[in-house]
Design brief:
InterPro entries: Class_I_gatase-like, PdxT/SNO, PdxT/SNO_CS
Pfam family, one: SNO
CATH topology: Rossmann fold
Bound molecules: glutamine
Keywords: Glutamine amidotransferase, Hydrolase, Lyase, Pyridoxal phosphate
Number of helices: 6
Function: Catalyzes the hydrolysis of glutamine to glutamate and ammonia as part of the biosynthesis of pyridoxal 5'-phosphate. The resulting ammonia molecule is channeled to the active site of PdxS.
EC number: 4.3.3.6, 3.5.1.2
Shape: globular
Largest sheet: 9 strands, mixed
Oligomer: single chain
Number of domains: 1
CATH superfamily: Class I glutamine amidotransferase (GATase) domain
Structural class: alpha/beta
């Protein structure tokens, strides 16, 4: 079983730990550099991206997080976590820092103030090609997603694979799930809907990278 951490500075940590266990991982909370050094993968939860970066700096985790992302540690960011993995942010506060690694432009609070939170159906497409991937590593098909003051992906670089787009409604076609190598990110919160496929996919990705 891969050992997957959840960055536990702020945000909905417990829901992610539970989903990771369901997906076949040993799940641990990560608050210190020593704990970060011991995981095979890391989830960056939703919450507030500016607060999370400040706390990461205070806990002396920001540089270690950047290093591990550069070194190829599988990371999965949801919502604020997606913002943390983005190389570029629109609609952020002046000079907002990130961990980076995903060659994307992410727009914060992209769906607008009126719709603080909403649900939408998605089309997901993803396969883990590495390391003898089996049929169950596929993440294909419809997915019901919950968005909470969510970002969207406005531009993707060449090496970035689009895993999911909104299927219906006014935001139809918007990119809300991406992957680049070992890094993946979703605008939505797969930890709170009871559908474990996205976490199971990440656990397999991290297991394959081990
Ligand atoms: N709007 C938040 C941010 O910019 C993200 C919201 C979330 O993670 N649910 O950090």
């Amino acid at each position: 079983r891969p050992r997957i951490g959840v960055l536990a500075l702020q945000g909905d940590v417990r829901e992610h730990l539970a989903m990771l266990v369901r997906g076949g991982a040993d799940a641990v909370a990560v608050r210190r550099p020593r704990e970060l050094a011991e995981v095979d993968g890391l989830v960056l939860p939703g919450g507030e991206s500016t607060t999370m970066v400040k706390l990461a700096r205070t806990f002396e985790l920001l540089e270690p997080l950047r290093e591990r992302a550069r070194d190829g540690l599988p990371m999965f960011g949801t919502c604020a976590g997606m913002i943390l993995l983005a190389d570029r942010i629109e609609g952020g506060v002046e000079g907002q820092e990130t961990i980076g690694g995903l060659d994307v432009v992410v727009r914060r609070n992209a769906f607008g103030r009126q719709v603080d939170s909403f649900e939408a159906d998605l089309d997901l497409h993803a396969e883990v090609e590495e390391a003898g991937a089996a049929a169950e590593t596929s993440l294909d098909g419809p997915f019901h997603a919950v968005f909470i003051r969510a970002p969207w992906v406005e531009q993707v670089g060449e090496g970035v694979e689009v895993l999911g787009t909104v299927a219906t409604g006014p935001a139809s076609g918007r990119v809300v799930a991406v992957r680049q190598g070992a890094l993946m990110a979703t605008s939505f919160h797969p930890e709170i809907t009871g559908d474990g496929r996205v976490h199971a996919f990440f656990v397999r990705l991290a297991g394959a990278a081990r």
